[in-house]
UniProtKB/TrEMBL annotation:
Taxonomic lineage of the native organism: Eukaryota, Metazoa, Chordata, Craniata, Vertebrata
Domain C-type lectin: 35-153
Native organism: Coilia grayii (Gray's grenadier anchovy)
Keywords of the record: Disulfide bond, Signal
CDD domains listed in its UniProt record: CLECT
First and last residue of the signal peptide: 1-22
Protein name, entry field: C-type lectin domain-containing protein
Source domain of life: Eukaryota
């Protein structure tokens, strides 16, 4: 287990190197990280779900929707890199309109899921979506008034000198030892 933890950390360090590249490009403003035509930002301040969404909207973003294995894995690695893997983080899904009918706050199709074991369980009326520390940052429904860090996302913009040589975060940024390959389903090494 100690070995696994070490390689998760190594994974995060290399991922942050990839993020540093993204700061030199113009597709995302400072503090945001570019991946798959969107810009993502992790805000570590523990915040209730809809307060977090309001904060994202003030930056023309929403709580992040996730649509692919790669996006999901990259977000997990970013959360780990920010050392928030013990608190988890809100992402932008909810089933508060109709129980069991999940939607993304940004209006995109809810076409991918990665529920943690036994989730969603709506325990005590849980209607908001988070990456849970209890199962490798897979998904859990949680009561919306809980305070958690959160991930905002928005479409990438084209800066005045946005170039074609932008560096994008990619799965190869999640690098691990050959004996502990990075899992494309969990986004962690081993
Ligand atoms: Ca629910
Ligand atoms: Ca739950």
């Amino acid at each position: 287990m100690a070995t696994r933890t070490i390689w998760i950390s190594a994974c995060a360090v290399l991922l942050l190197c990839g993020a540093a590249h993204s700061h030199r490009q113009q597709r995302c403003s400072s503090g945001w990280r570019f991946f798959n035509n969107r810009c993502f930002k992790i805000i570590p301040t523990p915040t209730a779900f809809y307060k977090a969404e309001e904060a994202c909207q003030r930056e023309n973003a929403h709580l992040a929707s996730l649509h692919t294995v790669a996006e999901n894995a990259i977000m997990r690695s970013l959360v780990q890199g920010a050392r928030l893997d013990t608190s988890g983080a809100w992402i932008g899904g909810a089933d508060d309109v109709s129980e069991g009918h999940w939607y993304w706050l940004d209006g995109s199709p809810f076409n991918y899921i990665d529920w943690a074991k036994g989730q969603p369980d709506n325990y005590g009326n849980e209607d908001c979506l988070m990456l849970t520390p209890y199962d490798h940052l897979r998904w859990n429904d949680l009561r919306c008034d809980n305070l958690r860090p959160y991930i905002c996302a928005k479409k990438s913009g084209r800066g005045s000198d946005g170039g074609s040589d932008d560096t994008e975060l990619k799965m190869t940024d999640v690098s691990c030892a050959p004996s502990q390959p990075c899992s494309y389903t969990t986004g962690v090494c081993g």
